[in-house]
């Protein structure tokens, strides 16, 4: 159960959708279902075209921060994440600012997604 708010210059206004409890879908899947125009190509964590900024909107410890190996590689090559941010995500549970929408699993927390 989470509100996912999408914001982008590509949309006339922000869109907030409700992700259902028990969902283990990717952020890209949620966006596509609601016709949110996040750009994508491979849908497999390889091209980096779906990179977006994700901010957790609650005070609780973020839940969905596990980065896939593909995310680490692609985001690092794109200059959107540092080794320190990867380390902080893995060791300190600090969410990195950028994620790949096709790899990020929506959890039970409200998030803001900028693309
Ligand atoms: Fe290619 Fe997400 S669509 S990395």
TrEMBL record:
2Fe-2S ferredoxin-type domain segment(s): 2-115
CDD domains per the UniProt record, alphabetical: fer2
Cross-referenced Pfam families: Fer2
Name of the protein: 2Fe-2S iron-sulfur cluster-binding protein
Organism: Rhodoplanes azumiensis
InterPro entries: 2Fe-2S_ferredoxin-like_sf, 2Fe-2S_ferredoxin-type, 2Fe2S_fd_BS, Beta-grasp_dom_sf
Phylogenetic classification of the source organism: Bacteria, Pseudomonadati, Pseudomonadota, Alphaproteobacteria, Hyphomicrobiales
Superkingdom assignment: Bacteria
